[in-house]
Amino acid sequence: MDFRTLPAGGAFTLTNCVTPSGLSGADGDFLPVDLAIADGKVGAEATGPEIDMGGSIVLPAFTDMHTHLDKGHIWRRASNPDGTFMGALTTVGADREANWSAEDVRARMDFALRCAYAHGTRAVRTHIDSLAPQDAISWPVFREVREDWKDRIELQASCLLTIEAVEPDSPFVKTADRVVDSGGVLGTVTFPVPDLKQRLEFFFRTAADRNLVVDFHVDETGDPAVRTLRSIAETAIEMKFDAPIVVGHCCSLAVQEEDYADRTMDLMAEAGIAVVSLPMCNMYLQSRERGRTPRWRGVTLVHEMKSRGIPVSFASDNTRDPFYAYGDLDMMEVLREATRIAQLDHSDPDWIRSFNTTPSDVCGFSSQALEPGDPADLVICNARDWTELFARPQSDRIVVRNGKPIDRTLPDYRELDHLMEDA
């Protein structure tokens, strides 16, 4: 049977497949496997007709744990004027104030999720800009979208506002309650402020009082003097905060003194902090100066973190907005680019987990490890080893959800033209 032809449902067994050995902790690059599919789940033994897959790589469907669905696909009306971080901040702020109606946010969220679904993603955590009055618009839209997509993509949302907004008797408290009502995650962006410690303590208390997990945007800069990551770890340890903690970006760690960075990562491990790296967006923004070649990649110290037992994931981050002009919520692209940017090859064999099972575990999404009883949510690639996988974009991949191959037709950008024209 042709590689690209699978039954539209029912019971069948995929024979002559390989899966990355790192998914199960085995040695080597790949393990031969036959995958039985029945009732939308991975079975324990062969069933139905056998389909020879010719040695093709089978992966668990992806988890994209750091995205910005509310910002996505605004580039045509709100492009970054100079490609810098500040250019992104100011441009997004102006566009949000002018254009982010419920209809606008909903249409762009749905468009982005259709892309992610077609590419093979099964779970997404998005950050939601949550300064008033936008929070009253975007959070209800998120809840509606989550309900619409519940049978296709698991969705979580984290509020996004700066650490300067985190203080008692402020709108932040109402935002935290809104997060609780939406089953969300408490988030903030940290940067050096004189009373950072007090604000972090209040942030963690607010989360603990409401039984919320937390997700930080941290030190997204090449300035080695920006060191809020250590403050987060120290405060979490001092307060004995025991709910899951995620930190994203952590760019400046890579340009700090080695002894300082090592101690910071030791504290992260002690605090039980997980990290998510966003290599494509950070390469776009970091070390950008007009007329000057960038001097560094913008990626954090993922190898050193992983060696300490810190859970490390990779994710898409922004898509076609001022923070990143490109991207399509395609985790296969993230996997390929992260491997090159962070030199994941010639390294630990289990990095593949950082794109599916590790972020799924960190976020608390349902299990996805190709084990019997797991949903048959698969990405099947016409490649037999890593070099074949990474040499091409795998645009002919097969995505299987609940045991059925899906239509991978991507939405047309023209669908969003009316939003750009109205703006």
Automatic annotation (TrEMBL):
Question: Would the keyword Hydrolase turn up in this protein's UniProt record?
Answer: yes
* Entry keyword annotation includes RNA-binding: no
GO molecular-function terms, A-Z: cytosine deaminase activity; isoguanine deaminase activity; metal ion binding
The UniProt record lists the EC number as: 3.5.4.1
Q: Which UniProt keywords apply?
A: Hydrolase, Metal-binding
Q: Could you name the domain of life of the organism this protein comes from?
A: Bacteria
InterPro entries assigned to the protein according to its UniProt record, in alphabetical order: Amidohydro_3, Metal-dep_hydrolase_composite, Metal_Hydrolase, Metallo-hydrolase_Enzymes
Q: Which residues form the signal peptide?
A: none
Gene3D superfamilies the UniProt entry points to: Metal-dependent hydrolases, Urease, subunit C, domain 1
Descriptive protein name:
Cytosine deaminase
Q: Which organism does this sequence originate in?
A: Flavimaribacter sediminis
